[in-house]
């Protein structure tokens, strides 16, 4: 799900760049914040809140929409803290609000009579061919799965979601 914060983030970036020399003061260096600097940091904080609100709103709509339409929701039990520690993945994960999405699906279960299941984080949902079960390395940037055994060519997410749907029961637990 592409989170629609792009415009707000661009604005944030411009704001930060234009004001890159403004500081809020430093006791040790005996620098006092100018009024312009104070105004800027208030504005900056507001822009961060604005982005957070867009994210929450978008994920709330998405999780409600899916919860209304589905009976069973199966998601990967991704190692979020481990992924955040990995810098390449950090922005992708936080941008997709993975943990927040999982939390929303979980608490919405009683409202929509859904059942949320987590698939073991070591289950090779992306590396496995959903047609023949062959497992091969799959780079993070590869968007298409090309099976070296049966020749299956499939969208990365589509292949992974079929594998999650068909995951063996011993790899699944309730959220
Ligand atoms: Zn295959």
Mind explaining what this structure looks like?
50% of the residues lie in helices and 13% in strands. With 175 residues, it is α+β, with helices and mostly antiparallel strands. The protein has 2 domains: 1-69; 70-175, no CATH class. A 3-stranded mixed β-sheet has the order 3-4-7, with helices on one face. α1 (6-18) packs antiparallel against α2 and α2 crosses α5 (98-107). The longest helix is centred in the N-terminal third of the chain and has 35 residues, at 35-69. The structure holds zinc ion. Zinc ion is lined by residues 129, 131-132, 134, 147, 149-150, 152.
Topology, element by element:
Elements: H1 6-18, E1 25-26, E2 31-32, H2 35-69, E3 72-76, H3 80-85, H4 87-95, H5 98-107, H6 109-112, E4 115-119, E5 144-146, E6 153-155, H7 156-165, E7 172-174
Residue stretches low in confidence (pLDDT < 50, at least 5 long) are none
Helix content: 40-55%
Dominant shape: elongated
**H/E order of the elements?**
HEEHEHHHHEEEHE
CA-based gyration radius = 21 Å
Could you say how many structural domains there are in total? 2
- Order the strands across the largest sheet as they lie in space: 3-4-7
The average pLDDT is 88
Biggest sheet record: 3 strands, mixed
Look at the helices and sheets and give the structural class.
Answer: alpha+beta
The number of helical segments is 7
In whole angstroms, the N-to-C terminal distance is 21 Å
Number of strands: 7
């Amino acid at each position: 799900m592409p989170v629609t914060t792009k415009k707000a983030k661009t604005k944030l970036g411009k704001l930060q760049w234009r004001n890159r020399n403004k500081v809020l003061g430093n006791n040790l260096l005996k620098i006092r914040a100018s009024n312009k600097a104070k105004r800027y940091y208030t504005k900056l904080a507001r822009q961060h809140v604005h982005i957070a609100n867009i994210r929450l709103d978008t994920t709330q709509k998405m999780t409600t929409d899916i919860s209304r339409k589905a009976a069973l929701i199966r998601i990967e039990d991704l190692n979020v803290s481990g992924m955040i520690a990995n810098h390449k993945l950090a922005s992708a994960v936080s941008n997709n609000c993975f943990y927040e999405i999982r939390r929303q699906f979980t608490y919405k279960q009683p409202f929509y009579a859904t059942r949320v299941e987590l698939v073991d984080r070591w289950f090779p949902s992306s590396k496995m061919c959903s047609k023949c079960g062959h497992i091969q390395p799959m780079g993070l940037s590869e968007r298409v799965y090309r099976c070296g055994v049966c020749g299956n060519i499939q969208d990365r997410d589509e292949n992974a979601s079929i594998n999650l749907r068909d995951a063996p029961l011993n790899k699944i637990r309730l959220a």
